[in-house]
Design a protein that fits this description.
By secondary structure, the chain is an alpha+beta fold. It has a domain of 109 residues: Ribosomal Protein S8, Chain: A, domain 1. Helix content is 38%, strand content 13%. A 5-stranded mixed sheet has the order 1-4-5-3-2, sandwiched between helices. The chain is elongated, with a radius of gyration of 38 Å. It starts with 11 loop residues before the first helix and ends in a 5-residue tail after the last strand.
Length: 186
């Protein structure tokens, strides 16, 4: 039991100091507590409706002809400074395939030499659009398309190649590329 006037757990000096500080404080006579509730966070309902509508449209809306003609996930490349319209026209088949090279059965060194010689010969002949058949890799060890990746890298390094895209299924599909070469310098 503590002495009257002494706060529990405090030495008498501290208790007396505390009592002196709060001597003129009036006790609360009401039992109501005034509490300002924190307003709830705003729910972005319109944004949620917009996102749901966009998702629904993307899943159920008909695909436009423009999107079907453009393609998308297949490999395509254009040189910096070349208009994207050039690639679009190449994908749509607006360029006539003037020559082709088949790399089937060649190892990577033979294929690189054949590709370089073919592109050089096409530039001399004035051929602008060509097809390179690199294959799907079914004859490679592990059935991995080695020449597919290499052919794209080799073409992208050549200054005379403006763009390439995957050929349509009728022309080799994922086993071939359509390549657009720069015009021969006069």
């Amino acid at each position: 039991m503590t002495k009257p006037g002494v706060l529990r757990g405090l030495p008498a000096v501290d208790s007396a100091l505390f009592r002196a500080e709060v001597a003129d404080v009036a006790p609360i006579t009401t039992d109501r507590v005034f509490h300002q509730p924190v307003p709830p966070l705003a729910i972005p309902r319109q944004r949620l409706r917009d996102e749901a509508a966009a998702l629904s449209d993307s899943l159920t809306a008909p695909i436009s002809l423009e999107l079907l003609l453009e393609g998308g996930s297949e490999p395509a490349w254009t040189r910096n400074g070349v208009s994207r319209n050039v690639l679009r026209d190449l994908r749509r088949g607006r360029w006539v395939i003037q020559d082709h090279l088949d790399l089937h059965g060649l190892n990577r060194h033979e294929a690189q030499a054949a590709l370089g010689g073919f592109v050089a010969a096409c530039l001399v002949d004035g051929s602008r659009c060509v097809r390179i058949v690199h294959g799907r890799g079914f004859g490679s060890p592990g059935r991995e398309p080695v020449l597919k990746q290499l052919a794209r890298a080799w073409l992208a390094r050549r200054a005379d190649v403006l763009a390439y895209c995957q050929a349509p299924l009728r022309d080799g599909g994922e086993g071939a590329l359509w390549v657009l070469l720069r015009a021969a310098k006069l």
